[in-house]
Design brief:
This protein folds into two domains: about 220 residues, Response regulator (Rossmann fold, 3-Layer(aba) Sandwich), CATH 3.40.50; about 140 residues, 3-Layer(aba) Sandwich (Rossmann fold). It contains 14 helices and twelve strands. A six-stranded parallel sheet has the order 2-1-3-4-5-11, sandwiched between helices. It has a six-stranded mixed sheet with strand order 7-6-8-9-10-12, with helices on both faces. Helix 13 links the parallel strand 9 and strand 10. Helix 5 runs parallel beside helix 14, helix 8 packs across helix 10 and helix 11 crosses helix 12.
């Protein structure tokens, strides 16, 4: 099995070049040569937190063998989530556009994100840094969390005939139809950030983004260790999950990822509740009400909360905990916003994931640039993984968002 980190580092260093650029015109060859010369500077770009914008992946997990039917396994079994967690490694490419390999300079990219959010603003900023480094034309559009609007934007992007479309799918299953439509239009597609249904990736060049399942498996272990430290000798420890927007891969990865990890790592940790706050998923007030209801229902039995967002959701969680006079609940979350890192620094949030927003957008555009430059690209590339605690949170200031 190939190691993801090796693939990522190798590609970003530009050591694997496809042969697609062998029959280029003189002008195309000159553009390719000039584009490849920009690689070194692009790799030195920094995000707002002074981390490398294109840091190599730290994920060295081997891709496991797919079960015959993952859906027949219980949800507490990590392999039940195989087609989502390992999406991209077992693709069957359909009608992919020909890779010319004539350089990234001058190419037109349209990025369609999922919705308006401070994270998204930082993601687009990181994408634009790389697009600017390669002198590419770059547009970013947001449907503000409405799939029908995203579908309309895809139609609009197809009509503009860009050199590539970058897409964060709002719905994992709906992404299949979106990807097929772009593919049938003959426009190269790259999917990033949230993992779609595996079938969608058959129509895309590849996928980049955070390994949410992998990150939350790491987070779950750190969370379990702290829960055990604070509750020595307890026969059972109750926890709850504030979930992401339903439909996308973070909804599953940020709850069922830790649940399935804890089923073997810490089986004494029991899930009491899990829900996505309604009507606003990323709203402090609705999260506060949800958690307040849990605190009333479960009382001291509730010892831990895992949130899919370290900003609004985490603020709502701590508002509820403070109203209830509870300081014994161990809270972890996806990160890493300023609000989340401030909560870690203040000793409230125990741990968050390093969820580089700028790096997410940057990696998607770098994948596009490398493809335009004729490099042989893997079907999937993950962002670097890290769990931030009070011990090292200072290293990630100033925050990206």
């Amino acid at each position: 099995m190939k190691r993801l980190a090796f693939i990522f580092a190798t590609l970003l260093l530009g050591t694997v070049i496809a042969v697609s650029g062998q029959n280029l015109s003189a002008a195309q060859q000159a553009n390719l040569t000039a584009s490849l010369a920009l690689d070194s500077a692009a790799m030195q770009l920094r995000s707002a937190d002074n981390q490398l914008l294109l840091a190599p992946s730290t994920d060295n997990r081997k891709v496991p063998t797919r079960p015959a039917d993952p859906s027949k396994l219980p949800e507490t079994n990590p392999l039940h989530w195989y087609d989502m967690e390992w999406a991209g490694w077992n693709v069957h490419p359909v009608n992919l556009p020909t890779q010319v390999g004539d350089g990234a300079i001058g190419k037109k990219i349209i990025m369609i994100v999922h919705g308006d959010h401070p994270w998204t603003t930082a993601c687009i900023l990181g994408a634009k840094k790389v697009a600017d480094a390669y002198h590419m034309e770059f547009k970013a559009w947001s449907p503000n969390w409405v799939k029908d609007v995203q579908d309309q934007m895809i139609d609009q992007a197809i009509n503009e005939r860009p050199d590539m479309i970058l897409l964060i799918p709002l719905d994992a299953k709906g992404a299949v139809q979106q990807a097929r439509k772009i593919n049938q239009a003959g426009i190269p597609l790259h999917i990033f950030n949230t993992l779609p249904d595996a079938a969608a990736l058959n129509y895309a060049l590849g996928w980049t983004g955070p390994d949410d399942f992998g990150q939350f498996r790491l987070l779950a272990r750190a969370w379990a260790d702290e829960l055990h430290r604070r509750n020595p000798g307890a026969s059972s420890i109750g926890v709850a999950y504030v979930q992401h927007a339903p439909g996308g891969s973070p909804f599953f990865a940020r709850s069922y990822g830790p649940i399935s990890e804890l089923s073997t790592y810490a089986p004494d940790i029991k899930t009491l509740a899990m829900a996505s706050p309604t009507p606003a998923t990323f709203d402090a007030n609705t999260t506060m009400q949800l958690v307040s209801d849990w605190l009333t229902k479960y009382g001291k039995e509730l010892k831990g909360i895992c949130a899919s967002d370290d900003s609004a959701q985490s603020l709502g969680i701590f508002q509820a905990l403070e109203k209830a006079g509870r300081k014994d609940v161990v809270v972890v979350a996806a990160g890493n916003s300023k609000q989340g890192m401030d909560l870690v620094k203040d000793g409230k949030l125990f741990a968050i994931t390093y969820q580089t927003a700028e790096g997410d957008g940057a990696l998607a555009v770098k994948y596009a640039a490398d493809w335009f430059d004729g490099k042989k690209m893997p079907p999937r590339m993950n962002l670097a993984q890290h769990i931030i605690t009070i011990k090292d949170v200072a290293n990630f200031y100033p925050p990206q968002w």
